């Protein structure tokens, strides 16, 4: 599903965020990418989203070579990815239903299809009774569930989550991770960027650890956590 070969990203003043990174993520995997702040893990996610371009190396996602992708194809490519952020990024002036529906309205999905798919997605994340609520009326965990529903509404092959539990208390954090695990069991490839060793060790999934832009660990089904 994701193939990265000798990937390097260098910023100004020769500061390297990523150095010769190579890794493969298979279809249907649940993978943590972890490391301390500034290790380069968020830069890797932004490259996968095609928000920044690598200095060198090759990235292939679902058989698409990102380095050869014409700019006009980028929006279509991004629609194949579901993305969840730490700060939820919900539309504050729209209720739960409209927040989830927005992801389909912007790509021209019909009203009939939206009326079918949004309630189904809200049931999946456990928010059927909250569809009229606005973000300020929801807990942090509920807001993240809305964000996940919005990320999944177009049935992406890959879900990328950037610190999805960063603004949540431990109870809500584990509920969200349980939901991501269930999504993965249904066939979606899930990649979670996090610096939380507690979450990583509890979930017992594959862990790719990056330190100073270099992959220093790749452990399957282990709660591996690298320390300096």
Automatic annotation (TrEMBL):
Pfam families from the UniProt entry: ABC_tran (PF00005)
ABC transporter domain mapped to chain residues: 2-228
UniProt similarity note: Belongs to the ABC transporter superfamily.
InterPro entries the record matches: AAA+_ATPase, ABC_transporter-like_ATP-bd, ABC_transporter-like_CS, ABC_transpr_LolD-like, Cell_div_FtsE, P-loop_NTPase
Topology class, membrane: Peripheral membrane protein
Main location group: membrane
Protein name: Cell division ATP-binding protein FtsE
Protein localization: Cell membrane
Annotated source species: Enterocloster hominis
Highest taxon of source: Bacteria
Oligomeric form and interacting partners: Homodimer. Forms a membrane-associated complex with FtsX.
GO MF annotation list: ATP binding
This protein's encoding gene: ftsE
SMART domains registered for this protein in UniProt: AAA
GO biological process: cell division
